[in-house]
Amino acid sequence: MRIGLFGGTFDPPHVGHLMVAQIAREMAQLDRVVFIPAAIPPHKQHQDITDVESRLAMVAMAVKPFSSFEVSPIECQREGPSYTVDTVLAYRKLYPFAELFLILGADMFENFPTWKDAQEIAKEVTLLVAPRPYQDVDQAISKGQMTLSASQIIFLEMPALDISSSWLRERLVAGLRVDPLLPDGVWNWIVQQGVYQQS
Ligand SMILES: Nc1ncnc2c1ncn2[C@@H]1O[C@H](COP(=O)(O)OP(=O)(O)OP(=O)(O)O)[C@@H](O)[C@H]1O
Ligand SMILES: O=C(O)c1ccc[n+]([C@@H]2O[C@H](COP(=O)([O-])O)[C@@H](O)[C@H]2O)c1
C-alpha cells in the first residue's frame, strides 16, 4: 500500500490543494491520499486560525468526490502542536509495511529541516514536493541544513498554482466571492456557517 500524507491548515481548503494531491497520486502511484488538518500548526499563529472542527468539515467536503482521497482527524485528537513526526510515526505503527509519502509545497519544503525530528520523518517517508510561485526549489535544497538523498524527494511536475488560503481568507473577510477556487460544496457551507465573517 502506498499512502500519501498531506498535512495542512486548510483554512480554507482550495483547488490548489486538490490538484497537488491529484498530481502526487499520479506521480507516486498512491493508493490513498490522506488530508490531515493540523489542530495547531506548529509554525503558524494559531489564535487567528479557524476552529479545527470547521476546517475538518471543509476538508471532508473537499475530498468527497475523489475516491482515493480521505480526511483524517488524527491531529485533531492530539493535544499540543500538531507535529508531523507524531503523525508519521502513528501511520507507521498503523501500517508497518506501507510505503509512506509526505506531500508538501515548496514553501514548506524550504523549512523542512527546522521541523521537529525532521531526520526521523525523512527516514519514514519520501517527500513529494509541489512547486509554489516565487519559490526556487534548488535554492530551498541548498539552504537546507540536512542532507536528503535524491531518492527521498520527488518533485511534482505541475505548474506552480498561485492560490493560497490566506488570499482567499482576505477576500472572504472582505465579503468577496472566491467560489471558483473552492472545492465543491465548500463555498455554500462557508456562507451558511458564516465562518469568515468579520465579527
Ligand atoms: N497552491 C499551492 N500549490 C502547491 N502547494 C500548496 C498550495 N497551497 C498550499 N500548498 C501546500 O499545501 C500544504 C498545506 O497548505 P496550507 O493549508 O497552509 O495552505 P496555504 O494556501 O499555504 O495557506 P496560507 O496562505 O494560509 O499559508 C502546505 O504544504 C502548502 O505548501
Ligand atoms: O512538525 C513540524 O515541526 C512542522 C512544522 C511546520 C509545519 N508542519 C506541518 O506542515 C503542514 C503544512 O503546514 P502549514 O502551516 O503550511 O499549514 C502541516 O501539516 C503542519 O503540521 C510541521
From TrEMBL:
GO terms for molecular function: ATP binding; nicotinate-nucleotide adenylyltransferase activity. The keyword Magnesium does not apply. It holds the Pfam family CTP_transf_like. Its EC number is 2.7.7.18. Residues 5-171 form the Cytidyltransferase-like domain. Keywords: ATP-binding, NAD, Nucleotide-binding, Nucleotidyltransferase, Pyridine nucleotide biosynthesis, Transferase. InterPro entries: Cyt_trans-like, NadD/NMNAT, Rossmann-like_a/b/a_fold. Pathway: Cofactor biosynthesis; NAD(+) biosynthesis; deamido-NAD(+) from nicotinate D-ribonucleotide: step 1/1. One of its GO terms (biological process) is NAD+ biosynthetic process. It catalyses: nicotinate beta-D-ribonucleotide + ATP + H(+) = deamido-NAD(+) + diphosphate. Belongs to the NadD family. Catalyzes the reversible adenylation of nicotinate mononucleotide (NaMN) to nicotinic acid adenine dinucleotide (NaAD). This is Probable nicotinate-nucleotide adenylyltransferase. It comes from Sulfoacidibacillus ferrooxidans. The lineage of its organism: Bacteria, Bacillati, Bacillota, Bacilli, Bacillales. The gene is nadD.
